[in-house]
Specification:
GO terms for molecular function: oxidoreductase activity. Pfam families: adh_short. It is found in: Endoplasmic reticulum. With about 375 residues, the chain is an alpha/beta fold. It has two domains: about 50 residues; about 270 residues, Rossmann fold, CATH 3.40.50.720. It is about 55% helix and about 10% strand. It is built from eleven helices and nine strands. The chain has a seven-stranded parallel sheet with strand order 3-2-1-4-5-6-7, sandwiched between helices. A two-stranded antiparallel ribbon has the order 8-9. Helix 3 packs parallel to helix 4. The radius of gyration is 36 Å and the shape is globular. The N and C termini lie close together (about 10 Å).
Length: about 375
């Protein structure tokens, strides 16, 4: 009977410990839930304000005088087609002098003639160079033509990039194609930045824009090498932003999604611009206007911001999933049980004889004589 009372007492103590554990779990889960909601709400509020600045207020406000703010010249690589050419036109309309950097001499001549027809444009010069050639001799020639030490270069837009001419798995590309993509997208950006940025630092003004891609943030099939090079551009630009945050120069990371250009039309058969795929001119105008906000990273189109947000949402969901799993594991952990009281090992003693009964050693909770033991039966 006493043993039964002891077991019931132990059971009640165990239930009490489990209830305390559950209460602690619910308190922890509630606190984390509130913290996540508050953090997400604050981030969402700041993000909405940022998007309004980029794509509403900057588009309605007066256009920035980049010549006065940054300098006379703008160097734009890959500016004979697509986004680069549209950016060159937009800056020419604002009175900047343009240096067009590309490798096709015929396209360079056409682009120069087109820019010179803009009423407010300053001077227009061209530099013929293959930026996928990583040799120092090649870039020494480029330096001699651009002459960054004797020009007031205010803007550098690293737009030149190589996009695969077909969708294919990694093993379907020749090594020559892979090396060409890496050289142009990575080394070309590094060389031009290293060439022009020191002069900006010395003059105390300037802007460097590195054109990356949304694929650098959202990995996908058939864009393996291209996406990896754009991830490098992302990391390189962010490192520069941290290193030169105290300097009076702006370093911008542009991460566009799909834009209606000849290159995109050739690879994906996209024909006309649409809501999801803006034209190069519209995209360039929005991106250049957004420079006045001095926000360091954006995609250049509102619809592309939502595309990019998908990766952030998945990252957030992954974090929430990890926290949930952790809490479930914590909740499933067995509560600490109070130790079961050890039973005393006693010997039954005969009432007539002061000696142990043969074979009577048992585990009972109390020391009893044989007569008492018999009475409890």
């Amino acid at each position: 009977m006493f043993a039964s009372f002891k077991n019931i007492e132990h059971l009640l103590e165990t239930i009490s410990n489990y209830n305390d554990h559950s209460k602690n779990f619910l308190t922890l889960a509630s606190a984390l839930g509130v913290l996540i909601i508050i953090t997400y709400s604050i981030c969402l509020t700041f993000r909405v304000i940022q998007l309004l600045r980029l794509y509403v207020f900057s588009q309605l406000c007066c256009k920035t005088d980049f010549t006065k703010k940054y300098g006379k010249w703008a160097v734009i690589s890959g500016s004979t087609d697509g986004i680069g050419q549209s950016m060159a036109k937009e800056l020419a309309r604002r009175g900047m002098s343009i240096i067009v950097v590309a490798r096709n001499e015929e396209k360079l001549a056409k682009t120069k003639a087109m820019l010179e027809r803009e009423p407010n444009v300053g001077e227009v010069e061209t530099v013929k160079v293959d930026l996928s050639d990583p040799s120092m001799e090649n870039f020494d020639k480029v330096r001699a033509q651009i002459d960054p030490d004797n020009r007031d270069i205010g803007l550098l837009i690293n737009n030149a990039g190589s996009f695969p001419d077909r969708y294919a798995r990694f093993n379907r590309f020749d090594m020559e194609e892979i090396v060409s993509i890496v050289n142009l997208n990575v080394l070309g950006t590094l060389h031009l930045t290293r060439m022009i940025m020191p002069g900006m630092i010395e003059r105390g003004r300037g802007l460097v824009m590195n054109v990356s891609s949304i694929l650098g943030e959202m990995p996908g099939p058939y864009f393996n090498v291209y996406g990896a090079t754009k991830s490098f551009v992302n990391a390189f630009t962010r490192q520069l932003q941290m290193e030169y945050g105290s300097h009076p120069i702006d370093i911008i990371l542009l991460q566009p999604g799909p834009v209606s250009t000849k290159q995109l039309i050739a690879t994906s058969k996209v024909s006309d611009p649409s809501f999801l795929i803006p034209s190069a001119d519209d995209f360039a105008r929005t991106s250049i206007n957004a420079l006045s906000t001095r926000i360091q990273c954006y995609t250049g189109a509102m619809v592309h911001e939502f595309m990019k947000s998908q990766s952030r949402i998945f990252t957030c969901l992954g974090l929430i999933s990890s926290i949930t799993k952790f809490l479930v594991i914590m909740n499933g952990k067995k509560p600490e049980l109070s130790p079961v009281p050890k039973r005393k090992k006693v010997q039954l003693v005969s009432a007539q004889e002061d000696r142990p009964l043969a074979g009577s050693a048992t585990d009972t909770p109390m020391h009893m004589t044989s007569s008492e033991f018999g009475a409890n039966k």
